[in-house]
Amino acid sequence: MIKYYKMFNKKNIKKDLSVLKRLLPYILPYKKKLVMAVISMAVVSALTGALAYIVKPLINDIFITKSYTELVLIPLLVILIFLVKNTFYYVEFYYTGSVGQNIIRSIRDEVYSAVVKLPVSKLNKIPTGVLIARITYDINIIQRTVSDSVSAVMKDILTIIVLLAVIIYMDFYLAIAALVLFPIVIFPVTLLGKKARITSTDTQIEMGNITKFLDETISNLRMVKAYNMEESEVSRFKKLSDNLYRFFMRMTKIRGLTVPFVELIGGISVAAIIFIGGLQVIKFGYTPGNFFSFLTAILLLYEPVKSLSRLNNSLQEGIAAGTRIFDILDEKPEEEGGTTIVPSEITTLEINGLYFSYDKDKDENNDLKNINIKVKKGEIAAIVGYSGAGKSTIAVLLPRFYDPDVGEIKLNGINIKKFNLKDLRNFISYVSQNVVLFNESIRFNIEYGSGNKSLDDVINAAKLAFAHDFIMSLPDGYDTVVDEAGLRLSGGEKQRILIARAFLKNSPVLILDEATSSLDSESEKVIQNALFGSDENPNGLCRNKIAIIIAHRLSTVKHADIIYVLEKGGIAESGTHDELIKRDGIYKNLLLKQME
Fold this sequence. Notes:
Elements: H1 2-27, H2 31-53, H3 55-64, H4 68-116, H5 120-123, H6 128-170, H7 172-179, H8 182-219, H9 221-226, H10 230-284, H11 288-329, E1 348-356, E2 368-376, E3 380-385, H12 391-397, E4 406-411, E5 414-415, H13 421-426, E6 428-432, H14 442-447, H15 455-464, H16 468-472, H17 491-505, E7 509-513, H18 521-532, E8 546-550, E9 562-567, E10 570-575, H19 577-583, H20 586-595
Parallel strand pairs: 3-8, 3-9, 6-7, 7-8
Antiparallel strand pairs: 1-2, 1-4, 4-5, 9-10
Helix pairs in contact: 2-4, 2-6, 2-11, 3-4, 3-11, 4-6, 4-11, 6-7, 6-8, 6-11, 7-10, 8-10, 8-11, 10-11, 15-17, 17-18
């Protein structure tokens, strides 16, 4: 058991050191500021030792020999020491704070960058609330740890060294007696630190659960209210809040035990020193000035010791948070793909013998199986079917959010895996049923993904999407800021902004994934005119492109040159609208059900 404990302890120490070692590259760019901080800390520590040392002449020369000169000089010296000490303390505090904030800023930026570069397959497995907790709560813990560590480790250790030098210089044997009790503090403080780390990890997990819960419920408050579930959600939140409270209280107990224990050891040490020192004064002629100067140094010594004991808990919390942060940083980003240049003109898109499953552990029941599709430039291919047939899965495979398990997707006969991922996506416009509008201006939302375009280009795209008129009716026109999730716009208006975005990007491949599924018939007609053209505006978005339309409502796909009907992940039928109606198959049944 002891052998196992030692092995486990060594393993933890090694892991802790690896986490701390990974923080070093973030510190090195600010070494000049750290040097200034260390110099300031050294001055503060030296002056702390000086304060302890001048107690000797204070007692001996003023209170015993009654020297008027010393009575004037020593108070002035004390004022000077405090003035200089606090000046350098401010310098130290400023530079350590600056270093700490810069380190945290760098880590926060890297973590966010790592998150947005994660593959979609990985992002779907991590709740949004957990990722938010990493970037906010965990980063804040590291910030506190870094600030505490940089200051405490250097300043407190320097102060301890200076005060130890003072007490050893003044009385070596009494110093040895005073330091005997120090090792007794180490074991329980270490044990409390381990418990703090475990509790901190549990707290961070629970904080992630709360963040996830808040993200889900607040973004769906309309549904909560529609089903009168307010009290139920409040009850669920209280349970999570109670769990978090218990973990925080457990951490509070650990922190609360650490300092009193150190205080107790310190009190016992001071009592022992008073007894031994007083005995020396009474029996061996030791001067009161020497004794009280020594005692002052000991009392000053316990303050940085207490600070270091608190640091241990903070350090354990920081290591736990750092482990979780570095786990994200260590995740592999999306592969960039090949180096083949995407052709400037894309004339064909082919899907050959494609099989795909979200769950790679399944041997059977692929989400898609033996998919074969071919679309030429200027053609519109529609993919329809019942819910769960696999329509949207095809849509996420084309921009390589996922890769097929078997088979190929080709542009101009070239496997899309050979293209650079960013270049490939630059050639694809993706309009989803999930409207994503940012809390920015209308212009920003239309320009998104197209770089900085002129206002004339943005207006032209909006006109093509039949969005210009309603945009101009808004308070600030194209500069109107869209509320979070686009709440001030109707569903059709939001969808037209997305289509305007696709017009502005003007990519040769267009994917429409259930783009009209949630619209009323009037809005759908406007969107269809924008997509396929009308007498008023013949330049529809799908013109002269390779267009893939994923649709549940069949009124959207009548304009398609070819329609693929999916059933249970495979293509059951294909043909034009008229051809499929004549076959009296799945497509006709779908159409009849929608007409009921």
